[in-house]
Specification:
Structural class of chain A: mainly alpha
Largest sheet of chain A: 3 strands, antiparallel
Order of helices and strands of chain A: HEHHEEHHHH
Number of strands of chain A: 3
Oligomer: homodimer
Shape of chain A: elongated
DNA sequence: CGCTATTATGTAAGTCTTGACATATAGTAC
DNA sequence: GTACTATATGTCAAGACTTACATAATAGCG
């Protein structure tokens, strides 16, 4: 089983979805912490079905092309539940902006500050978007957010990681930009 | 040019290094935001040399095997300087722990809490390590840390990202664990 | 003398991921 | 009519990355 396989099972444990639906999910929401293109999703679904973790049924549609809707099996749910509490395999993170920061001493200070001010803005905007989403969840889902056995609790937990991440990213970009601009002012 | 290529150029802009040295750098320090195995580094060095971005000279050693020491060229430094101020290509982040969190509602609360308490500890330890490093830098490097044209400033900037990241990670893990444990207590 | 570790450089096989190619239906805009 | 967008499913080639294989010098240990 690949991590992408578990990502797909995680989505199918909540609702039945087609390959196209899964692709859309990976673009939005879930895409903030795991993503894949349809060219990766369709073959993976075939492998999952071969392994007995999902089954599909063909839905015939008049106004649109027919589609295959996938459903998680008991076996699929079993492996997902096992995987979910195993400590993740630590693999080297790759952050291109930090890599650039590591060589930023070579750059023109104005251009460098512009880069980090731009990235700061990007992260601030993403943060604002996440915070709106959280406010909506708190209003709409209420008590469900406090129940660890409810999927909505899990959705909110993942969102909270996004909020903390974006806040940290924006804070760091601001710090780097200020440090560079500060020097220029002196 | 690949991102790994720029990562290597970033290291070579600071000092001359062999493929082996680069591999060691990617394991430690730099490895926190970019990493690669020697099997990826040696072919990449060959490509960089073919492109005229680096040159090597063979150093004969008596007590150890001979080595090739690589040096960045003016052209290599040129492309590095250009790359460093370009906004990074945004690519989907992949975080296995967040993916697990998204399906945590399926897990036994005790096991789920144990997972996040364990990860919280891991991040706290990494944070402590980074903070020690920062204290050492501030004591040892002093004024250099405030100069944006100094490599030490850039090293410190990258480290600050690590500190903010680990602090956020630990905070989030604690929040998730508490949320799960809180429910059990009620 | 063999075993292991460190330094040192490479190749090969396989997996993961992206980007391009490919097809088909239906609705909307020009 | 033509072009474009959304829905829907696939394949293929190439690149990025990991794991394992492969070699070689020296030093230290038992």
């Amino acid at each position: 089983m690949t991590t992408l396989g578990y990502a797909i099972l995680g989505l199918l444990s909540r609702e039945e979805l087609s390959g196209y639906d899964l692709t859309q999910r990976m673009k939005g929401r879930v895409g903030y912490f795991w993503s894949a293109r349809h060219s990766q999703i369709y073959p993976e679904l075939a492998r999952l079905e071969e392994g007995g973790y999902v089954v599909h049924s063909v839905i015939e549609q008049q106004e649109r092309p027919d589609k295959k809707v996938y459903e998680i099996t008991a076996e699929g749910l079993g492996v997902l539940k096992e995987w979910v509490v195993q400590p993740p395999v630590l693999k080297s993170s790759r952050d291109e902006l930090v890599l650039k920061a590591y060589s930023i001493w070579l750059a023109d200070p104005d251009e460098a500050a512009r880069l980090f001010r731009g990235e700061e803005l990007r992260h601030e905007e993403q943060l604002a978007h996440y915070e709106e989403l959280e406010a909506w969840m708190e209003g709409e889902w209420g008590e469900d957010l406090t129940r660890p056995d409810n999927a909505r609790f899990a959705t909110h937990a993942a969102l909270r990681r996004g909020i903390i991440y974006e806040r940290g990213s924006a804070e760091w970009c601001r710090w780097v930009a200020k440090s560079i601009e500060g020097e220029r002012a002196v």
